Amino acid sequence: ADNDDENEDEDEDEHATDTTNTSETDATSPPISVDEPTGGLTAGLDPVLQEANGTWIAWGDGDADFDVTNQRDCVRVPPGDEDYTLRRIDLSEEAVDAYYRGFSNRVLWPLCHGFAELVDERPNDLEWYRTVNERFAAAVADHASDESVVWLQDYHFALAPRMIRQAIPDSASIAQFWHIPWPAPATFDYCPAGEEVLEGLLGNDLLGFHVERYANAFLDCVRRFLPDATVDHEQGTIQYEGQITRVVATPMGVDAESYDQHAHDADADQLLSLFDRYDIPRNSAIGLGVDRLDYTKGIPERLTALERFFAENPSWHGDFTFIQKATPSRTEIPAYARHGDLVRSEVDRINRRFGTDDWQPIVYTEDYVEHDDLCALYRHADVMIVSPLIDGMNLVAQEYVAASVDADGTLLLSDRAGAHERLSSHALTIDPTDVQGFATAIDDALSMPPQERTTRMKALRSNVFDGDIADWMATQFDLLRRVHEGADSSNSA
Ligand code: ADP
């Protein structure tokens, strides 16, 4: 599958539904090639689909090595060991623009992240969002049987659950994980077709968020905008039109073992070659940021804090270098293009202010970083800065911890990331908009005694390893099973 979350360019989001117990076998399969995703949700789903012999339904982005235009849109994968069916939904450029770059990422993304002022509703986007959700729902109906469990991923499918509910047997179960935040009612009020979005999601038997705050905000929105719904905050249940939806908070983890292993393999030579590639003085301490170039990630605020730090701490000039790896994302959307320009110009300005012939305070790169290099950077970064203005979870923070095999780095973490709920006790918490507090935290991290760094990092590592992606998957499927068996009438998660 090529919709992994570590793509080198844009469209990193996951767009997939899966059903188990497919009744369909494949059409003739042309030869296909497979890139194994490293870590992340897609890597976690793959073995589950293999075990369930299910069907993975995903939007094809045109790179797939099989012909989706000729009804040959189902293949059995992986090649040579065909365990499950991959069904690609071929979307036209017009559909992608309106559904993905339109309603999904100009409306739902900014709205759910609390950027109501960036909501940009274009005339046909909602209609295309409905159409694409219908196409996925129809595809699910093709594959689903009485025993099926349907699991949808993320905000690209807000309307599909209700459509699927109407199209498949009653005894099948529908669940969804919403990987981004959910806003308070005052913000959700700006959502075009907001009631339809809520009704769509209430087609699910189970609806998951990363943290309680978002789950509670969803319940608040249903209570406010669907007065006929019965909302039980304590149980986390909603009854609407004869259907019960269970709302849970289950924070997602990363493939900690894999990051640990790759980081172990990243030797000093690999790091030195990265220093050479980016012209970093060999004795420099390293700060690191790894983000999609997205206005939610707080990159300008981070640069402002770094500028304050360098202004106040000339002794670190030449001895501390901040590497910002930024991955361009959704660049056709004006808010993203403007944001990219702002980040690049701020980097240039700060480097002109403090840089010398031998040293630049900020090394900024939009190049794709190979997984091994990413792990080497994680392992050797003295300070990792994760400073989103808001983030559903933030996997980068957890990846850094998993890759910190020497336990000698410090994590600076925004209190607005979902990841903060599991890492707050031993990270240095920052408010990304408090310039002085942020700059002081960078100084604190760099001057922290080694013993304290190690103690903090070891505690963080045990949190990340205890709640890894396998654990999350197991929780999801346990909840799904209980919902499916109808045995899940009370608490948990
Ligand atoms: P989001 O899903 O909003 O982009 P996350 O932090 O949750 O934010 O996930 C980002 C994922 O993308 C992480 O798994 C991270 O390792 C990966 N990633 C980001 N930039 C790069 C890059 N340049 N090279 C490789 N992987 C990257």
TrEMBL record:
One of the protein's GO biological processes: trehalose biosynthetic process
Bias (Acidic residues) ranges: 1-15
Keyword presence, Glycosyltransferase: yes
Molecular function per GO: alpha,alpha-trehalose-phosphate synthase (UDP-forming) activity; trehalose-phosphatase activity
Key words of the record: Glycosyltransferase, Transferase
Enzyme class, first EC level, given as a word: transferase
Enzyme nomenclature, EC number: 2.4.1.15
Compositionally biased region (Low complexity): 18-29
Protein name (Swiss-Prot/TrEMBL): Alpha,alpha-trehalose-phosphate synthase
Species: Natrialba magadii (strain ATCC 43099 / DSM 3394 / CCM 3739 / CIP 104546 / IAM 13178 / JCM 8861 / NBRC 102185 / NCIMB 2190 / MS3) (Natronobacterium magadii)
